[in-house]
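Sharing a chain and its predicted structure for anyone who wants a worked example. Both blocks are below, sequence first, tokens second.
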Amino acid sequence: MQNLTVLLIAFATCVATLIGGWFGIAMRDRLHLVLGFSAGAVIGLAFFDLLPEALELGRDYGPRNLMGLVGVGFVSYLLLDRVLAGNGRDAHGHDHGHEHAPALTPAPAERDPRRAWAVAGSLAVHSFLDGFAIGIAFQANRTVGIAVAVAVLSHDFADGLNTVGVVLRNGGNRRGAWRWLFTDAMAPMLGAAVSLMFTIPTSGIAVVLALFAGFFLYVGASDLLPESQHAHPRRLTTFFTVLGAAFLYIVARIAG
């Protein structure tokens, strides 16, 4: 029954990614609010659910060692993000150190389909890890599984719109954008399926949850949050970030 639940949630993340991609094409004016909410949700997931659960399950490791693993997870995801994206640009196709409004159609000199493939591919890898996280979280317990699922649904919605945006910004056409969108949408289902192939002991789950806490802290604080604040009114966006974190706190409390 639990395996079926994991696969159904993974399918829901697939749908959320597709909806996010459609939203990115059709309704771009409020994307910063969606990204702000997603940032709060994944940061809230790390602080209000993954970290407490890791500390509870991994008492033999000690809090200092587990927090060190959180740092390892954060840095590992940072390196993965930079290696896959490359070319000095982040996972959303923005040049670091340059302030500009987001645009789906760049100047011809800025277009580079290879960059679009690299960045869209990195987002698909991220989505695979999201699906894997769902399966591992349910191995911990249902409460953690539900909280991770809610955060991943929000995150993958943002991934969908980012995938479409980065392909179109770098000279790709809509057909290519949809092709990458479907790749990104299927990735969490594959990740969830892989997570069902083996069982991790309780002590090992604590280690994995600590690493995933670092992953989600990076995604939220270093990726989604700066993107949501980029060239947009900050008060309303900040409100949605706090709302996302509060929502995950409530979900964790209710699920528990």
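Comments welcome. The CA atoms of residues 19 and 157 lie 7 Å apart.
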